[in-house]
Design a protein that fits this description.
By secondary structure, this protein is of the alpha/beta class. The protein has two domains: about 60 residues, Orthogonal Bundle (Chemotaxis Receptor Methyltransferase Cher, domain 1); about 170 residues, Rossmann fold (3-Layer(aba) Sandwich). The strands form two sheets. Strands 6-2-1-7-8-10-9 form a seven-stranded mixed beta sheet. Strands 3-5-4 form a three-stranded antiparallel beta sheet. Bound molecules: S-adenosylmethionine. The site of S-adenosylmethionine has 25 residues, from loops.
Length: about 290
């Protein structure tokens, strides 16, 4: 991919700059995350941590380690865990969840219900530590006695980062993660233990957590039959070309009539014309026609 340089190098870092661009490109090729010039110092500090951990002192040596060492795959995983941003929270983007409950779910229930197929399949793609898929599970569970009476649902929750997935499976959160969660949901779906909130096992049964790299074509083609995909606050880290590739996969992963939610500050403008754009109060959603 090698595109822009990080600028002329006059780094004060103890290591040489040689190989920095290649390392940046290696990350891009592995997971689609692109670091523009402004992120140079962030990257340098993350590389420094990993280089110290594996005991090398130049970018070239680290490159060689990532390309040739018997531990190269494990190291690439660790590097990706260093450079990904995992910020998330329950009910992060409320207008989206309102639209899901009041507009999208009723529409899908009407269409799929007519066809007699009462099962919903959702995907939280890039779920981080689980707050998003658990929010979806709470919302759908609330609808089981009414709109979703007689329906089943399951939620696939995936991320590239095993550390956040372990936290998601554990389901223990501090109150900052619940800052937008109203008491009704806190009381019904969490047990408080000291400063921690523990998610009820009743919600866990709806969710399957799994490691998945959205940039890995060979895995993405097997994600099939989804009614709703949430892929929020991850495409911002990709460049145009990797966004296009991932979003085209989502198109294939969705059922006809299915919906794709992306982050509040993200857009498919210039990325994909196959989806139909719908507006709702406070946001947009993309539908596979
Ligand atoms: C900022 S979090 C977003 C979490 C949640 N979707 C939300 O909106 O609150 C971004 C997540 O994307 C994941 N990620 C980044 N690149 C990825 C890739 N190529 N495949 C899968 N997950 C990726 C990161 O590990 C991180 O957990």
């Amino acid at each position: 991919m090698s595109t822009q340089a990080f600028g002329t190098s006059s780094s004060s870092s103890a290591v040489t700059n040689d190989g920095l661009f290649e390392l940046r490109d290696l990350i891009y090729e592995a997971c689609g995350i692109f670091f523009p010039d402004g992120k140079r110092y962030f990257l340098e500090s993350r590389f420094a941590r990993r280089m110290e951990a594996v005991g090398v002192s130049s970018y070239f040596e680290y490159l060689r380690y990532l390309r040739q060492s018997p531990q190269k795959n494990e190291e690439m995983k660790k590097l990706i865990e260093e450079i990904t941003t995992n910020e998330t929270s329950f009910f992060r983007n409320m207008p989206q969840f309102q639209a899901l409950q009041t507009i999208i779910l009723p529409k899908i229930v009407e269409t799929k219900g007519k066809a007699g197929f009462k099962k919903l399949k959702l995907w939280s793609a890039a779920c981080s530590s689980g707050e998003e898929p658990y929010t979806l599970a709470m919302i759908l569970n609330e609808k089981l006695p009414t709109l979703l009476a007689g329906w089943m649902f399951d939620i696939h929750a995936t991320d590239i980062n095993d550390q956040v997935l372990a936290k998601a499976r554990e389901g223990i959160y501090g109150d900052y993660a619940l800052r937008s969660t109203v008491d009704y949901f806190k009381n019904k779906y969490f047990t408080q233990q000291g400063p921690n909130y523990i998610i009820t096992p009743n919600l866990k049964k709806y969710i399957r957590f799994q490691n998945l790299n959205l940039y890995d074509d060979s895995k993405m083609v097997f994600m099939k039959g989804f009614d709703i995909i949430f892929c929020c606050n991850v495409l911002i880290y990709f460049d145009q070309s990797s966004k296009k590739k991932v979003v085209q996969h989502f198109f294939g992963n969705l059922n006809q009539g299915g919906y794709l939610f992306i982050g509040h500050s993200e857009s498919l403008y210039g990325i994909n014309n196959d989806f139909k754009l719908h507006h709702f109060p406070g946001g947009v959603v993309y539908q596979k026609p």
